[in-house]
Specification:
The chain is of the alpha/beta class and 408 residues long. Among the domains are: 187 residues, no CATH class; 74 residues, no CATH class. It is built from 15 helices and 7 strands. A 5-stranded parallel sheet has the order 3-4-1-5-6, sandwiched between helices. Strands 2-7 form a two-stranded antiparallel sheet. Helix 2 crosses helix 4 and helix 6 runs parallel beside helix 11. The longest helix has 20 residues. The chain starts with 8 loop residues before the first strand and ends with a helix.
């Protein structure tokens, strides 16, 4: 196996959703995460979620796409892992949370594992009640739900998505000691830090890790801002899903740039819904505490805590409960005017919003036009404390840069 380091480890982070994945992805993508003197290969400018489609395509057809614009293909990743000089190669994609572990392992064995000396598949698991509440906020932000938290819980239960024990058991069966799952609860993470815990459990114990200063990647919206965004998403409901998602992300970032609110209420579970969640997931929580999380048995505790800290009645997300009729009318007028501009320019708006998101993340505007989201070579981010590192070349002209990067 070519390469400068005799020991090279693959870390494939599969989420889960709502466990701080965006923070860790942005930290690796910007070079803000420093692990002692170790070299980290993170071939993406944001996440590797696009790989979920590529894994599925390979399983279905038996063939891997040689190259495409979204990011490095499976064959290109294989060559990068073989040729690059690194101690740890990190891939992070929460969209693999629902993947078939056996199929995932087949692709890993074909394109990833032969080029490294060790590998870990890593995930974090958010306790049931906290996961439902944070997922509700996320889906509301993206314009994907307009019901109550209780209705959202019932919708999630029908999908069996949060029946963790059986799903995680399949990953453990597939990967054995190469699979690591951790509860996403601050008081059991190393020093209360997701990044430090990730490095300790997925890399190697005892490594010094630091995170250079930078803005939060995915801050929570207040109840007031969530009500406003939900109202706006309702006005924009006929737009394409990806456009509404881009608008939701842009709104979140702009909220963080505007400074603190006069009133900022935290989204909370009501007592009735919290008790329903506890009843639904108590057996799953106990099974996790007795099995996979036996060293840190806190999943049942977190269900009880959710009930104990729940508020008496459900919170309203109706904008009219926060603003005067005249203020709501003014917002509707601006939304309708914006809608007229968006109707004919959705693709351009999506590109522009994505470009601005990249700019805020990396501290600069991509230089190759609206479709460009990265480049090969040394990072020149203005982010304080960011280390120079190679970034993945995506966008117009990326193929020629890729050839220089992997030497073919």
């Amino acid at each position: 196996m070519p390469g400068h380091n005799s020991r090279r480890k693959l870390v494939f982070h599969i989420g889960h959703h709502k466990t701080g994945t965006t923070t860790s992805q942005y930290g690796f993508a910007t070079g803000r995460i420093d692990v002692a003197d170790k070299k980290i290969l993170y071939p993406a400018t944001m996440s590797h979620n696009y790989l979920a489609r590529e894994f599925a395509r390979y399983i279905e057809s038996g063939h891997a796409t040689e190259s495409f614009e979204t990011g490095p293909s499976l064959p290109e990743i294989s060559r990068l892992l073989a040729r690059e000089d690194y101690d740890y190669a990190v891939f992070s994609a929460e969209d693999f949370e629902g993947a078939n572990p056996a199929e995932f392992g087949k692709v890993l064995d074909r394109f990833f594992v032969p080029n490294v000396t060790d590998h870990t598949v890593m995930c974090y698991v958010r306790p049931h009640a906290a996961r439902i509440l944070s997922s509700f906020a996320e889906m509301t932000k993206l314009g994907a739900t307009d019901g109550s938290v209780k209705a959202f819980h019932q919708q999630i239960e029908r999908t069996q998505r949060l029946r963790y024990t059986q799903k995680l058991g399949r990953w453990q069966t597939q990967f054995g000691t190469h699979f690591v799952a951790r509860p996403m609860v601050r008081d059991v993470l190393k020093n209360g830090s997701l990044i430090e815990d990730f490095v300790e459990k997925a890399f190697d114990p005892g490594l010094d890790v630091s995170l250079a200063p930078g803005g939060s990647a995915n801050e929570s919206l207040s109840l007031e801002d969530l009500a406003l965004l939900r109202h706006l998403q309702g006005r924009l409901a006929h737009l394409g899903k990806h456009t509404r998602h881009s608008i939701g992300w842009s709104f979140l970032q702009k909220c963080g740039m505007r400074g603190p609110q006069t009133q900022a209420t935290k989204l909370a579970l009501d007592k009735e819904t919290a008790e329903l969640i506890r009843k639904t997931y108590l057996s799953d929580a106990r099974a996790l505490d007795a099995g996979l999380f036996a060293e840190t048995p806190i999943m049942e505790r977190e269900l009880e805590r959710a009930v104990d800290t729940a508020i008496a009645k459900p919170q309203s997300l109706a904008l009219s409960d926060f603003l005067s009729p005249d203020a709501v009318r003014a917002i509707d007028l601006y939304a309708d005017m914006t809608l007229e501009l968006l109707d004919e320019n959705q693709a351009r708006v999506r590109d522009r919003l994505r470009q601005r998101r990249f700019e805020r993340l990396h501290g600069e505007v991509p230089s190759d036009g609206p479709g460009h989201h990265g480049w090969a070579g040394e990072k020149t981010s203005k982010e304080p404390g960011a280390r120079k590192r190679k970034l993945w070349p995506i966008g117009p002209g990326y193929k020629s840069r890729l050839k220089r990067l992997i030497g073919r």
